[in-house]
Amino acid sequence: MLLSRIARKITGSNGIQSLMEDLGSALGKPKGTTSLLGGGNPARIPEVEKIYKEALLQLISSGEIESMFGEYSSPIGNDDIRNATAEYLKEHLGAEIRGENIAFFNGSQNAYSYLLNCFSGTMEDGSFKKIILPIVPEYIGYADQTWEDNVFSSVVPKVLSTGAHRFRYGLDKENLDFASAGCVVLSRPTNPTGNVLSKEETLWLYEKTKEYKIPFLLDLAYGNPFPNLIGAAEPIHWMPGMILSLSFSKVGLPGVRTGIIIADAEIISLLSSFGAVGNLAVGNLGLSLAKVFWKENTLVKTANTILRPYYEEKSKIAVQILEEAFLSQNLAYSFHEPDGGFFLWIHFPRLKITNKELYRLCKERDVYIVSGHYFFPGLTTDFSHTKQCIRLTYCRDKEEIARGAKIIAEIVARNSSET
Ligand SMILES: Cc1ncc(COP(=O)(O)O)c(C=O)c1O
């Protein structure tokens, strides 16, 4: 079949697709026989699901549901909900935000598929602009969204030891090249590592984007104000020139497919054109729920009283289970400091096979992990971590993690060098 170049690019093996396919194919298997440690689903927390169910019941009893089912909204949401969202978020994002600064999309992924292409590739003046990822590894979902090739630019991050079996990636300020940049993109917390870049370094990046007059895209899918999984780090506030994205997914509503962009009015109006052409309208469910959520402060309250303590505890338990398994096999391993987000990023410095091969061997035993090699778009320099790291979610139950930990440890032990 003759396909377009972009269709060929998208159908080629890409990380996000294999990840979502793994999620689907492993789902129907009996409990206890698989370890689904790959995906980005939030944990199912009955107490939280009950809160969302009650919000939905309010929509039904108030009659909102009829218009929710029966009417298209504006491409990025009607003015009333955009104004209400601005009013609500202004307190949480410490800025004078108005309705004209807000756009809703069918998930933040949907918004990024437009944003990344607005600010990279061949520009209207004929120049070619890059997307700067200031620290790789970075979110797998950006990599295949661009219509043009070779648009990502990244450098080997600083690898800072933070203690026994612990490290963190840091900005290599000297080598970041902003000259060809069309925009800068950072997820905070970062998926896959759980890194929450310090406020100071984040603001350094912001100043750079101002200097080069390019947008700074800050992906807060796991960040403040909800689910607020940022550990001890300071929250981000919106400032002109920043494009913030929030998501309803990581608070436990991935099926609702709602993402919110906060940006200068000029960018929002650009996005509105993309929303109209690509989606006609944003889905109504998330917008209607947002009305209830803002009125009752649901998401921020739930994040701080239930989600944060829940995920912090889960992360601690998972690290403990994994470390026990690794130590019992005498493995060389190091965890990225798990500051926030849903994931653990692990480096096996003596691994003799690639992480891609490790993924395959684990999958043969029904343990689903994500190979780290996907997370380095734009990196052209050799860096051992691209082949020796894996990403695991800790949002699964203890038994499932323990089963996976034992199998991963056995396979890594069998495929590691002595020194
Ligand atoms: C860092 C990050 N950004 C954005 C998304 C996309 O989220 P959604 O489209 O569900 O809002 C994800 C999903 O896993 C993510 O991990």
How helix-rich are the residues, as a percent range? 40-55%
How much of the sequence lies in strands comes to 15-25%
User: Any ligands, ions or cofactors bound here, and which?
Assistant: pyridoxal-5'-phosphate
| Sheet with the most strands, sense and barrel status | 8 strands, mixed
Helix and strand element order = HHEHHHEHEEHEEEEHEEEHHHEEHEEHEH
Domain Aminotransferase class I/classII large: 180-407
InterPro entries: Aminotransferase_I/II_large, Class-I_PLP-dep_aminotransf, PyrdxlP-dep_Trfase, PyrdxlP-dep_Trfase_major
Organism: Leptospira idonii
Cofactor: pyridoxal 5'-phosphate
Task: Describe the structure in your own words.
This protein has 419 residues and is of the alpha/beta class. It contains 14 helices and 16 strands. A hairpin with a 6-residue loop joins β12 and β13 (343-347). α3 (46-62) packs across α10 (284-296), α5 (79-92) crosses α10 (284-296) and α11 (298-328) runs parallel beside α14 (398-414). The chain is globular and about 65 Å long. The N and C termini lie far apart (49 Å). Pyridoxal-5'-phosphate binds next to α6.
